Amino acid sequence: SDDIEDVSLFDADDDLSRRSKKSKIRHPVASFFHLFFRVSAIIVYLLCELLTSSFIACMVTIILLLSCDFWAVKNVTGRLMVGLRWWNQVDDDGRSHWVFEARKVSAQGSKTSSEAESRIFWLGLITCPMIWVIFAFSALFSFKVKWLAVVVMGVVLQGANLYGYIRCKVGSRKNLTSMATNYLGKQFLRQ
């Protein structure tokens, strides 16, 4: 007989509530890596032609950094820093469902993520894809077609995380909005 225990996704919440709130940043390693991979990919893109003449080495380095960023943000930093996560789930029928989840407010009503972490998370999540979009226009208008593929990967990977977390953040509000709209529509039709 196997003992199976249901464990909360946010195990760290229990530890955080017990810990004293000495620092504003409760997850310094997660905060560091949230920005490290993103900024490193941008810096490598900007300095690549100055440091080496090998396009392949630059491209592989940038794609690896972007992939590490995508994984870290989607699986670790979003959960720890702001309590949001998203994933794709495929049913037995083969239908794909996107799941967007936000951390529930704790029993004491206090937030378990700090303001500083939230700012770091959202600033990095919004700013870096915008920079990659600027790089895309720059590569397109300067006819650097070989760099366009790398820049498009940056836009897609970081844009996907941005889209996923925006859906997590406003997903519950969207449901409330649709419920309110349906209620008002029904009231209007009755009159």
UniProtKB/TrEMBL annotation:
Q: Which GO terms describe its biological process?
A: protein secretion; vesicle-mediated transport
Membrane topology (UniProt): Multi-pass membrane protein
Q: Which InterPro entries match?
A: TVP23-like
Q: Subcellular location, in the record's words?
A: Membrane
Entry GO terms, CC: Golgi membrane
Transmembrane spans = 53-73, 120-141, 147-166
Q: Which UniProt keywords apply?
A: Membrane, Transmembrane, Transmembrane helix
- RNA-binding recorded as keyword: no
One Pfam family matching this protein: DUF846
Q: Does the keyword Transmembrane helix apply?
A: yes
Q: Which PANTHER family match?
A: GOLGI APPARATUS MEMBRANE PROTEIN TVP23, GOLGI APPARATUS MEMBRANE PROTEIN TVP23 HOMOLOG B
In the record, the note on similarity to other proteins reads: Belongs to the TVP23 family.
Name of the protein in question: Golgi apparatus membrane protein TVP23 homolog
Can you name the source organism? Grallaria varia (variegated antpitta)
Q: What is the lineage of its organism?
A: Eukaryota, Metazoa, Chordata, Craniata, Vertebrata
